[in-house]
Amino acid sequence: MTKTDTETTHAPATFYDGQTPVSHVVSLAVSDDERLLQISGAGLGPEHYWPLDDIREHRDQALRQGAMFGCPKEGEARLTIHKPDTVAEMRAVCPNLTRSDVPSRTYRKLAFWGIGAVASVLLIVFVIIPALADRLAVLIPVEQEAALGRTVVTQMEGFFGAEQAGDLTCSSPAGDAALEKMVARLEAEVDSPYELDVRVLDVDMINAFAVPGGQVVLFRGLIGNATRPEMVAGVLAHEIGHVVNRDPTRLMLRAAGSAGIMGMLLGDFTGGTAILLVSEQLVSANYQQGAEEDADTFAHEVLAATGLPSAALGEFFRLVREKYGDVDGILSHLVSHPDLAGRAERAKEADVTASGDFTPVLSDAEWQALRGICGPEDG
């Protein structure tokens, strides 16, 4: 490829005009002023002149050697050069081979639509699905919620290592009787569409959580760390508040997303509805602050109505805070909010019983039975 208007270098190059599927063997030449590439060949018709500044190199994975070039002003026309040294010459004389010809306004449009797409996803995730979950939570039949809750508990036992359902559920005659007595005293003052089902799991974690359908799970670690039964009663009253307000169902609908919402409404509680994912989320349940405040208030009112001290719930918050601090994570919604001290103080202020002036929720013997419901304590 020479730099003259008349002399050409006959190189192995082919040219497609972009209008017909016919290829033409062509010769190339660069004008003396180094501004134009002349493309000519038998049967091609009029010669083509491409400004060197406008030539772009195109990637073509089918080419084992050589390179393909184009010129935006000639539409889909393509020039393929097979000879490596001619390709090198082209790359030397064409200054803008890799320059993008997409107008800057196109990038602005892409950015605009990209931001719009992200905003739409965020709107769905954080606004539409939560609002939909809140509305649908009250439409799911109680029986369906209870079935969902049983599935959740089974999944949770598997999450903590149980080989089959019930492996981690603690039970003893005296312990069960003590737990039933505590539940009965609280349930007498609760207007709930559910029949409460409270159980203890043999898990050494200071935690408790409510699941859909009137079910509450207490962990052995919570009972073992409480210094008196009224602390456990306070936590249980808090969880019953979540049950009555259907907070677990709302949380699961939000976590499962649209597919999970449809599955739960249709009664599909198998793995297809991401039950395991949302079950794990319930263990570290971080309800909205408003839901937590409502559950605390509910607990204060129920404890007052049953003649039990809400200050005991505050004592439990302080015990957890002293042991773990204000932390996030696996310690559940009992400790996932940073204002444990404030919640403890509000529980104390809501207490309507004088110190010691109440009928204990359990006797000393019953309290020991509840503490031993999972078997003898280690150590």
Plain-language structure description:
This protein has 379 residues and is of the alpha+beta class. The chain folds into three domains: 9-93, PH-domain like (Roll); 102-137; 141-371, no CATH class. Helix content is 47%, strand content 13%. The protein is built from 13 helices and ten strands. The strands form two sheets. A seven-stranded antiparallel sheet has the order 4-3-2-1-7-6-5. A three-stranded mixed sheet has the order 8-10-9. A hairpin with a 3-residue loop joins strand 9 (208-211) and strand 10 (215-219). Helix 2 packs across helix 7 (247-265) and helix 7 (247-265) runs antiparallel to helix 8 (275-283). The longest helix has 34 residues, at 104-137. The radius of gyration is 37 Å and the shape is rod-shaped. Residues 4-10, 268-285 and 328-336 have low confidence and may be disordered.
Structural class: alpha+beta
Strand content: 5-15%
Question: Given the structure, what is the number of helices?
Answer: 13
Helicity, in percent? 40-55%
Low-confidence stretches: 4-10, 268-285, 328-336
Total number of strands: 10
Described by strand count, sense and barrel closure, the largest sheet is: 7 strands, antiparallel
Number of domains: 3
Distance between the terminal alpha carbons, to the nearest Å? 91 Å
Strand order within the widest beta sheet: 4-3-2-1-7-6-5
Q: Which H/E pattern describes the elements?
A: EEEEEEEHHHHEEEHHHHHHHHH
Q: What is the residue-averaged pLDDT?
A: 79
Radius of gyration: 37 Å
Q: How does the overall form come out from the CA principal axes? A: rod-shaped
